[in-house]
Specification:
Layout (H helix, E strand, L loop, with lengths): L1 H23 L8 H34 L4 H20 L4 H5 L8 E3 L10 E7 L2 E6 H7 L1 E6 L2 E8 L4 E6 L1 E2 L2 E2 L2 E7 L2 E6 L5 E3 L5 E3 L9 E2 L2 E4 H7 L4 E3 L14 H5 L18 E7 L2 E6 H7 L1 E6 L2 E7 L6 E5 L5 E3 L10 E5 L5 E3 L15 E2 L2 E5 H7 L4 E2 L3
Parallel strand pairs: 3-15, 17-26
Antiparallel strand pairs: 1-15, 2-3, 2-14, 4-5, 5-6, 6-13, 7-8, 9-10, 10-11, 11-12, 16-17, 16-25, 18-19, 19-20, 20-24, 21-22, 22-23
Helix pairs in contact: 1-2, 1-3, 2-3
Length: about 400
């Protein structure tokens, strides 16, 4: 009888090691911080615990055979042992990387030869004179690409469920980290570094579990641009190639329409804003503000103040891309409807009448050659921005 109880207990514990993380860390389910902590702890210990449980059930099976127990008991123990072994094997499997395969060795091609639709969005990164573009439809499948640009190790990340594209430095405390997709937390992707198994929130770069808990990765400035605009700005840049093995599984051009129909688990009803309202999130001097993307595209230029700093949001000549700058004491007006074709001007300053490009630089007049300081900003669905930036302000007019 002891052998039977050992087999039952070992199998049950092995299955719980598999079931608890799968139940808690799954899409379209709210993740409570305490539950998430328990699930991540179990998932980290599961390979060891389930292996011990599988060995225990095998030992009970061996004992049953030696004691010449009844045939049906031996068959039952053999079945329990098989289930425990399968459970132990599955605890080593990252189900999220089965759904969205990683891209361990990213390949690139020139901007001129890249087969990317002109209106497709890319995440653009330039470091130490080296420029690369990461098509969002490629990133939306793989979620994470570990890369090195301008001798700087970076993690390019994208989460389609919350519409967040962010780039983080992979260096922390002198160590170069390598990230993998680890799950989801209230609609936003989780990342795991291979070196310490710490778990990081994609939209904040903060470790929420493991040895690095509470630490934050350093943000790398990037722009979300239409491919045609990026290629015009950086004709010698390199573009991430699709992974031919999984390219057929990439989302179509209408992926946003499908995502907007998915269920969210963050309650935004008190804000009066739809959970899938697309925002441009900006953080300046510790103060957060969300700007509805459709308002920016309609206005073409918005000048506002955050933390007593003059902020400028301007739409590119493609009427789809957006950049943010610190405007200083300069006042700008849009020239999107009046600029001469090919001039490169998207705005004019009221003080001198100088024309300015989408790169934030004056291209003529007394301000010629002067450039504005870029501000980090990224698109995010309202439910995710609100969840990770409590107390945020919202641009309303």
């Amino acid at each position: 009888r002891l052998a039977i109880w050992v087999g039952l207990l070992g199998t049950l514990v092995s299955l719980l090691c598999l079931a608890i993380p799968m139940y808690v860390i799954r899409p379209f389910r709210p993740q409570d911080p305490w539950q998430l902590d328990v699930a991540l702890t179990v998932r980290g210990l599961a390979p060891w615990i389930s292996t011990v449980c599988a060995m225990a059930t095998l030992a009970s099976l061996s004992r049953a055979w030696q004691d010449r127990m009844r045939l049906w008991l031996r068959i039952a123990l053999a079945t329990l042992s098989l289930v425990a072994i399968v459970g132990a094997v599955l605890t080593h499997v990252n189900v999220f990387e089965i759904m969205f395969h990683p891209y361990p060795e990213p390949a690139f091609e020139s901007a001129a030869s890249a087969k990317v639709d002109s209106d497709d969005k890319v995440l653009s990164v330039t470091l130490h004179g080296e420029s690369r573009a990461y098509p969002i439809r490629t990133m939306g499948y793989h979620h994470i690409v570990n890369d090195t640009v301008g001798n700087t190790p970076i993690a390019v990340t994208y989460c389609t469920l919350c519409h967040t594209g962010l780039v983080w430095r992979r260096m922390l405390d002198g160590r170069t980290l390598r990230f993998r997709l680890a799950g989801i937390n209230n609609g936003n992707a989780l990342m795991r570094d291979e070196e310490t198994s710490s778990i990081w929130q994609q939209s904040t770069g903060i470790a929420i579990f493991g040895p690095f808990r509470g630490r934050q990765l350093q943000l790398v400035h990037c722009d979300e641009l239409a491919f045609s605009l990026w290629r015009k700005e950086v004709p010698n840049g390199m573009v991430l190639k699709p992974d031919a093995q999984y390219a057929s599984e990439y989302d179509g051009k209408d992926w946003e329409k499908h995502v907007e129909q998915t269920r969210t688990v963050v309650d935004t009803s008190k804000s009066g804003i739809s959970p899938h309202e697309l925002m441009l999130g900006v953080t300046v001097a510790g103060e957060n503000k969300a700007f509805p993307v459709k308002s920016i595209l309609t206005a073409k230029l918005i000048q506002d103040r955050i933390a007593n700093i003059s902020l400028l949001l301007v739409v590119g000549p493609d009427r789809a891309s957006i950049r943010a700058f610190k405007a200083g004491s300069i006042t700008f007006v849009s020239t999107a409807d009046s600029a001469l074709p090919g001039s490169g001007a998207v705005m004019r300053d009221a003080e001198t009448g100088s024309n300015w490009s989408f790169q934030g630089c004056a291209i003529d007049g007394t301000m010629a050659g002067r450039c504005l300081e870029p501000v980090d900003s990224f698109k995010d669905y309202w439910f995710d921005w609100m969840n990770h930036h409590p107390g945020t302000k919202v641009f309303r007019s």
